[in-house]
Amino acid sequence: MTRMIVGLGNPGHDYANTRHNAGFMAVDLIAENLRASYWKDEYGARTSLVRLGDEEILLVEPQTFMNLSGSSVRNLAEAYDASISEIIVVHDDLDLTLGLVKVKRGGGHGGHNGLRSLHEKLDDDGYLRVRVGIGRPPGRMDAADYVLQRMRPSVAEELEAVMPTAAQAAIHVLEHGVDSAMREFNAS
């Protein structure tokens, strides 16, 4: 059985510097830290098999756009015999202040379209989550516009600064379990 770390985001240059790509940013850092040497395209995602100790971990960045991520993740989970409870999803979270990282098991989608797609396609919300805080939109700005808006350099730097914590949280879940990760990362 293979364990998976899935980063949610949108493919392409137009979305690279947006809050909604926090999951991709974290998985890219994990790939760098675990020395991913080869990415391939399969089941509508960019994937790389890496080693963490004696274990193979599949890093996943769905290329189907956020709202359709669930199909790609479901197909990969089936192909790699990954149980839903062994999938870690890293995603942006409007309900957390920019710079916070929290770990969670299951729960609702909270209006997040990537999570909604996962819920629908996996028929299960028991996957694990690393939530990366991006804060709420200012004033009456639409949430969709906010998450897809190109970030000012200062905001991009703040989000980039939290990526090591998000990457550590995902690895901590793999090495020590979700309960330990929640104690470690949810205290702040």
Short description:
The protein has about 190 residues and is an alpha/beta fold. Helices cover about 40% and strands about 20% of the residues.
Kindly provide the name of the CATH class: Alpha Beta
Name the CATH superfamily assignment.
Peptidyl-tRNA hydrolase
Give start-end ranges of low-pLDDT stretches.
none
Gyration radius, in Å: 15 Å
Globular, elongated, flat, extended or rod-shaped: what is the shape?
globular
- Gross CATH architecture: 3-Layer(aba) Sandwich
Number of helices: 6
Given the helix and strand composition, which structural class is it?
alpha/beta
What is the element string, with H for helices and E for strands?
EHEEEHEEHEHHH
From the 3D structure, determine the CATH topology: Rossmann fold
Total number of strands: 7
Strand ordering within the main sheet: 2-3-4-1-5-7-6
